[in-house]
Request: fold
Amino acid sequence: MFHTTFYLRRLHSLCGLFVLGFFIFEHIATNSVAMAGPTIFNGVMGMVEEIPKPIFYAIEIGLYAIPILFHGLYGIYIALQANNNPRRYGYLRNWNFTLQRWTAWFLVVFLIWHVGYLRIYLKGIQGNPISFELLQNMFQNPVVAILYVLGMWAAIFHFCNGITTFCMTWGITKGPRAQNAISVISMLLCAGLCLITLAFMSSYFIY
Amino acid sequence: MADKVRFVIERQDGPNEKPYEQEFDVDYRPGLNVVAALMEIQKNPMTVDGKKVAPVTWECNCLEKVCGACMMVINGRARQACCALVDELSKPIHLAPARTFPVIRDLLIDRSVMFESLKKIQGWVELDGSWEVKDAPIQNPYTAATAYEISHCMTCGCCLEACPNVGPQSDFIGPAPTVQAYLFNLHPLGKFDAPKRLNALMEKGGITSCGNSQNCVEVCPKSIKLTTYLAQLNRDVNKQALRNIFNF
Reply:
């Protein structure tokens, strides 16, 4: 009678909205500093480095690594249970359902590359601090820059559509009117965050 | 010479046979529906190439969108064949079995999985027992309209066929049996077993397998507000989980 599936699903939902949602906002906030130019951006990156290492690692592992691994691995299991059918049933919500899974698959691959290369290889193994120049150099390759924009957009859509489905899963929005209202608000948020991403990504080509 | 309507039918000779397509022409007449057209094919099962073949197997009963038996995939969409008017369909008309369920033959499917799911969620009201049976209690007038709406469900399986999370790849019992739990939880006698039903919905393959694609509410031939009741049940199972944890 211990409903493991129920609690895992609910944990997956909470973890995605609050922990990974916070992570997305943190990423957008710190990366937006790039718009202020290399000096200020590198200053902020230096401030992050000032956080005592034990606290920094505890946050990185406890708040980022474990929730992402759980949400990702359990999410793969959920995505495998879907037989996406938007071509037969082309309703907006069904397209969102499908995109939620397509963005998830893209993000699994993107995050392995992003975390593996930037955090583990460049910063962890080679000991390079993340700086404006390092990112600017990386984005000189247009394929990398485009993949990073797509990675951000995928994460933002997945998060914003997740707000809509979270409200359904927790019974917060019950009727179609409330559900549509939340859906419109979260898609506006999605559009806004996507534009901010374009703005801070373009700063690497301006400075 | 009457106009002809072309039907492209996905057929299958047995549960484990390979599916194949055959085309048939049926004489047009005003008001023709898909079941009536299948009856015409049954009378003279001849393909467009003039080949005599075994008649197409399908299921139907009431012919007025009440029993749910004639559900099939018509032009890619799950619906009742009896109320699918030929005039309103794009031609040629494609018919296929609802492959979310095991196919027995041609368009005939085995929907017994839905009956098994109704047993899981206790889709009935407990009446018999060692206690005294008195007059029936009255329905709550505030929820009677909702109960009446959900009671229209005819377990046709349209919502299960349209749901991306129902199928051989998943153990989700589907929208129809899930929402039936809410109907019996509303019942003045059935509500005593509400915790049992909510606990059953928390099991693997229960309401947590819903992915909010909301196809169910779009295809339901009885216009039951399935997503609204799924959200209500989500509320109810969350409260039940708290009751389970804190034992109150």
The two ends of chain B are 75 Å apart (CA to CA). Chain B has a mean pLDDT of 94. Chain B is about 30% helix and 15% strand.
